[in-house]
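Board notes, transcribed. Complex of a protein with pyridoxal-5'-phosphate.
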Amino acid sequence: MAFFARRDGQLHVESVPLGALAARFGTPCYVYSRAALESAFGAFAAALAGRDHLVCYALKANSNLAVLDVLARLGAGFDIVSGGELARVIAAVGDARKVVFSGVGKSAAEIRQALAAGILCFNVESAAELARIESIAAELGTRAAVSFRVNPDVDPKTHPYISTGLRENKFGVAFGDARALVRRAAASRSLRVVGIGFHIGSQLTETAPFAAALERVLVLVDALGRDGIALDHLDLGGGLGIRYRDETPPAVADYVGALLGQVGGRALRILLEPGRSLIGNAGVLLTRVEYLKPGAERSFAIVDAAMNDLMRPALYDAWHDIVPVADRPGPPRRYDVVGPVCESGDFLGRARDLALEEGDLLAIMSAGAYGMSMSSNYNTRPRAAEVMVDGAAAHLVRAREEVAGLFALERKFP
Ligand SMILES: *Cc1c(COP(=O)(O)O)cnc(C)c1O
């Protein structure tokens, strides 16, 4: 089913025309499709059916409470990278039992918070972090469940900013150090070793790098087995890419199927940490054309969304499809679609052929992941509203920020 489709000359999200949402909630506005999100989760659940598993949604892709709620109802767990994200899970779901805590810089306060909340495990990224978790758990008289994120040193062939599994990246325990570190943890009275895993990058469009990482990690799993360390789970991370333009990422069933084939009969629960592949194509950024600025060299369509709303084009030179919400007859012109922010890097798309008039609505497609969650208040711009469509209903799931709130915590000199 197409969750974003043109009907009667207008782009709809499920049964709701985007023009109606702009009238009701204003622009810029993120719009998500609950059905698209559920369908994406369903693909993972189906691919893992018959196998003990937990799909831990990576909150950093989009941490709106409604997104977490929808996924929790389907049985999802969560992959977090901060105490703030843990608080979001607890607010949306009520408990933290299905939370895995990733990230290279967990503070002592975050470790305490996570232990108190009873998370499933820490994904440990260094010897120093392991020592800190151990001492805090000892002090609290508890046993901390730890899984190890191994850096398998494989090239994910994605944008360097979102590659995380190369030796030169800051992430994970070096492959050569992992066995000794896990053994040390297994001998601790304050730690309980529950798993091992990897996460090698984001927006990967081939299965091969995942397979290469898994092959290395399985060597470790087997070596640990010979050491007498039986793991509960194997965490295959996130990183599966989506189609923004013409990418051809593997289907979830093929990607998961290939990895499960490699795991074979090993009695391990399978964890996955998808973010982008669950929410990326379940959301659009709705924006309105403020001005048209035709020029000899270039023509600009200046819209009311900007790099502070959707940073990916400015940050990664990422490409998002930009489509008019309503059909407009007439010859297209080639526009750079730009925002009001005072940076030349403030563009949402370049050289797009569009027939436009002032006041028209545009949808920036595939904006569900790393859109709102990376947004900022640069230029003292209130963050956009967020709406989730569910069939014929539309729910405001985050109100548009108000300007006064943006400097409410600031103080002039006394
Ligand atoms: C970002 C991240 C993910 C999710 O990555 P996607 O590319 O959005 O699937 C999963 N695990 C960890 C540890 C991450 O940092």
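The chain has twelve helices and 21 strands. The chain has a mean pLDDT of 96.
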